[in-house]
Amino acid sequence: MIEFEFTDEEIEVLKEYRKTNQLMINQLLVSNGESDIALLSKKSEDMQPFSYDRESVRINLDAMIRIYEIMLKSYYSKENSAWSFVYGTTLAEIEKLKNEIYIDYFLHATENKEIDMPTIINFIGDNDVPYINIDETLKIETDTPEILIAPFTKIKEFKEAQEIQFEENRKLPIYSVTLEKQDLQELTFEEKEAVYNYILTSADVVNQKLQESINYDEDTLNNNENIRKLEQLLSKYELEIKKKIDFKDYPESEQLADKADIERIKSELSDLQDSNSNIFEEKKMAVDFITKWKKNIAVYVMAEFKELEMKYEAERKVLKENYSEKMKKYEEEAKEKHEKLKEGSLEEIAKAVDKECDENIILAKRLIEDIKKLITKQQNHAKIAGNIGATYSALNNAFDMKKVTETLLDKVTAIRGKAKELCEEEDRENLSEKLLKISEVNLQVGTLINYLNNPKSSVGQSKINRFEEMTIIEENELKRGIAETILNVRGEAELKKLKEDLEILEEKGAFKRFIGFFTGSNKLDEVKEEQIEIRQKAIRKTLSQKMSLVYNYSIHELVAEIQMFLEDNEDDELVEEDMYILQNMENELRRNFIISDSKVRDIIEQRENKNLPVEVKRITKRELIEIETYRFLNKYGYDRRNDEEENNQYKDTMQNEIARIVDYISSSKILEI
Questions:
Q1: Residue 651's closest CA among 395, 479, 480?
Q2: What's the pLDDT tens digit per position in 372-387?
Q3: CA-to-CA distance for 469 and 162, rounded, in angstroms?
Q4: What are phi and psi of 54, to 5 degrees?
């Protein structure tokens, strides 16, 4: 079965979900503004962090998409079948679920049937609904394993299954809810980007409206309390007036005073009731805005989920076809060898088994040597990254890989020892049969090890094996870390400069603005402000995107970008410290990589010469400013849309494949014959 590995980063996302952002992620998915207001109104000290500010929303949107990717990796790594998990809940949620079309949050369930809750639901899913066992993924041992079921699963059927009598006055109703996979809808890149931008740009407004709605509720409560007091006071006044009328001792002056008091109370009551009515309308508008915003979140997340499904469905298909084709070829060769060996004499069989054992030992030792070379490479990458101030984390745990391969070496060595032991025994009865069994295991082990060494990718006209591919990707991960560090330093420096430019334009004196009205410079200032904002937006967007591992990073391009920035800002004291950092980075790059200055200069010239395709005509000042923005964005790569397929989660599966060979040897019981 093809297996998709969980990366260390994904494991951390799952841990973080359980620890700090489970509440907000699931609340983001629920398209109901009232539920957010109710939740925040009852906020307690032990409640997880909860805020819809722009940055929090961005982080949590990314987290929920990563969690769904973990689910898909788990789903596509195994043969799936129908399942049933238990969910403890309240009667209020039962009533809510009865009226829902689908479940719009990550559903937490368990395999444990003993749940101390008012009611229990048995969720039954078909083999198309993704889920993940969190405890198994995080390698946590517990009696109540936590299951996470994918959001947007449709509720196919909801029925009461049975009722259990617990105590004399307590019954536990049990419901059965059948779920099925919802066919998620795609969005075009432009549609998805528009929805995403709307979500982020509206996030702070939503946060504000949530707080206002909580204040509305508090104001309504205060008004209701005051209305109650005024109604009691009005009733008291009216009763006292009735008594005075009944006694017929009620001077006219006192009547007028009492009437004025009554009118004053009624007026205050009317004002408070009007205030409540206005508050109701304002809150309704706020809730409608929040709900609309959250519905856009559901649309965006569904589209992201759909893209991930399509990606992993395609990857599984390709991997499965390649794996099946190669394994079929190796197994046919092994079967042919084994059938031929059956026809040989005892001496021929013993000699063949001895050769097979030696070959497997050599293969296992070669694996260990390749892994040691990979470890050395990773350690060197970590040293380079540390000197440059960049981040680098090995994509493959080569130490664990080495450990499991050493176990494999022990196993194949033990098989050779077992074969020699059998051949040295005086009892020759059934020896051929036993040696043929060892040969069968040897050939299968050799087949599996050879598959590990099989060339996996092509570079030019040559094939590269698994370790060569891992080495290339590990080096690219180092370069990506360096590229991100350079980009962050350079990008933040550019933002500082743009901020200062904007402040200079905004602080322009009134007299200069007055003169500019006649000279037209005011309009140019507006164009400059507009272009500054375009640059800022492009830089921030680039900085917020994680660089893709599939991009082939060039050290020459990185050095060229540093040199361009240093040349452009030679006399700018505002970014003097940033220039010092970048200069040190360039020095470290030159110490650790072979760099051709002529190649660097070619890249700089290419970046600086690229221009807008403009018609041959007189260029206006406005167009000149716009062209300069285009040149700037192109020169430093801020205009590159991140349309590449994300592949930041690479991890080779060799460690698990070696572990499966070890498991195969153990399960064959070959060392016990």
A1: 395
A2: 999 999 999 999 999 9
A3: 57
A4: -50, -50
